[in-house]
Amino acid sequence: MKRTVYVYHTNDVHSHFEYWPKISYFLCEQRQKHEKNNETMLLFDIGDFIDRFHPITEATRGKANVDLLNELHYDAVTIGNNEGITLDHEELNALYKNARFPVIVANLFKKDGTRPSWAHPYYIIPISDTFRVGVIGLTAYFAKSYELLGWKVTPPLEMLENIAAEVKKQADLVILLSHLGINEDEKIAQTIPEIDIILGGHTHHLFPEGKRINQTLLCGAGKYGKFIGVVKLEIGESDHTYKALATVVDVKSLPDLEKTKRTLSLLEQQSLATLEAEQVAELKEDLPLQWFSPSPFAELLASALKEWCKAEIGMVNAGVLLEPLYKGVVTKKDLHRICPHPINPCKVQLRGAELKEIILQANTERMKYLEFKGFGFRGKVMGQMVYDGIELETETSKDGSEHIRHIMINGKPLNPDQLYDVATIDMFAIGNFYPQIQRASKKEYYMPEFLRDVLAWKLANQK
């Protein structure tokens, strides 16, 4: 006897709720259709469903996101780095309190090596009396960040082989919810034959028809909820075989589910009101901002980083601030709008020669006007590098370009052999913007506070 199973998957939605009413419409329609046709429907999320750039997620610390997943009857989810390392320990511990689905993440543990009560290494779903699907979940290996937040995350591939073998004994088909990225997914497909289907995320890859490596089908649905992944399974219950066909659905032309639109509108109003009610400070004068020239607001942030990290130098790009701050009451709503990024402070030790290279590179037009997304950055352009503890003497050539003549560190000439403690942002330590920072041997991350938390502290404690 043949049975048809439809597996739907989302990944890396990142709280882009503009597509969620369309996703809701489609999945509700499909669920009704499959029930009518006596077909099985499974629904999974592969992580980074939350992103604190959105006021709903910021105000509810992701709990509203979980409610949205509940409404669509997700069968299971795994966590991404946005769930795992942009919430503090207690917030992540409480995130899935009201979840009506299992959270599957095999490589996350408490510091003592035991699993948190809300996390499961795998889950077995009976499709019929004779056919079972095993589901394993894994999240990206951000070991240091998890450690700073009171968790322990283990290298995923080291433990997957044993878990996959254990699950294969209990299931006819094994699906991996992988928030590891395409490179790790391909390694798994090449080395662990027990994994039949990989539903992937983290690197935002899109496979419109899937990708086959050996006998494993790799799937990915892009980012931001623009696509929904679909795997159609034709299952032979008597001989325990299956055939799988992968596709994706582009949601942009789909209608909205009006009920979901109303829910999101109300949630946003409530969330903005919650953030607005949290007063941070009262400014006696404006804090102007310029992205491509010195300005008081960017200089304040550089000073705040230097103090927060107890460093000799503060260094940050002006583009992380999206708007000025104006005279009067400043609230959490203001700071979230102006600095929405899930970016943490970081202190790095650099030799003077390395610091000079960074300063010269940061002063180029290419870096100032660099447009990019990722590494936590939710802005538009890099902007000018702003410093506290560094003074630059510049000259303008005949062609109008600016050149740095002298670099002073806290009133003294830069010493190329001296070690300096520099407070900056973690996206420079993680990304390849400045190789000298990325490869530095001594780095210290400050978590769970984001840049806006450091700003709030600075503004509240200004003399």
Q: What are the SSEs and their pairings?
A:
Layout: E1 2-10, H1 20-36, E2 40-45, H2 55-60, H3 63-71, E3 76-77, H4 81-85, H5 89-95, E4 103-104, E5 108-110, E6 119-120, E7 122-126, E8 132-139, H6 143-148, E9 151-153, H7 156-168, E10 173-179, H8 182-191, E11 197-200, E12 211-213, E13 216-220, E14 227-236, E15 241-250, H9 258-276, E16 279-283, H10 296-308, E17 313-317, E18 328-331, H11 332-338, E19 345-351, H12 352-362, H13 365-368, E20 385-388, E21 390-396, E22 402-409, E23 412-413, E24 419-425, H14 426-430, H15 435-438, E25 443-445, H16 451-460
Parallel strand pairs: 1-2, 2-3, 4-6, 8-10, 10-11, 11-13, 17-24
Antiparallel strand pairs: 1-14, 5-9, 7-8, 12-13, 14-15, 16-18, 17-20, 19-24, 19-25, 21-22, 22-23
Helix pairs in contact: 1-9, 9-11, 10-16, 11-16
Distance between the termini: 77 Å
How does the helix and strand content classify structurally? Answer: alpha/beta
Strand order of the largest sheet: 7-8-10-11-13-12
The value of Rg in angstroms is 25 Å
Q: Helix share of residues?
A: 25-40%
**What general form does the structure show?**
elongated
Low-confidence parts, pLDDT < 50 over ≥5 residues?
Answer: none
Number of helices: 16
Number of strands: 25
Give the DSSP E fraction (strand runs of 2 or more residues).
25-35%
- What kind of sheet is the major sheet? 6 strands, mixed
Mean pLDDT: 95
List keywords for this structure.
16 helices; elongated; 25 strands; alpha/beta; 5-stranded mixed β-sheet; about 475 residues; 6-stranded mixed β-sheet
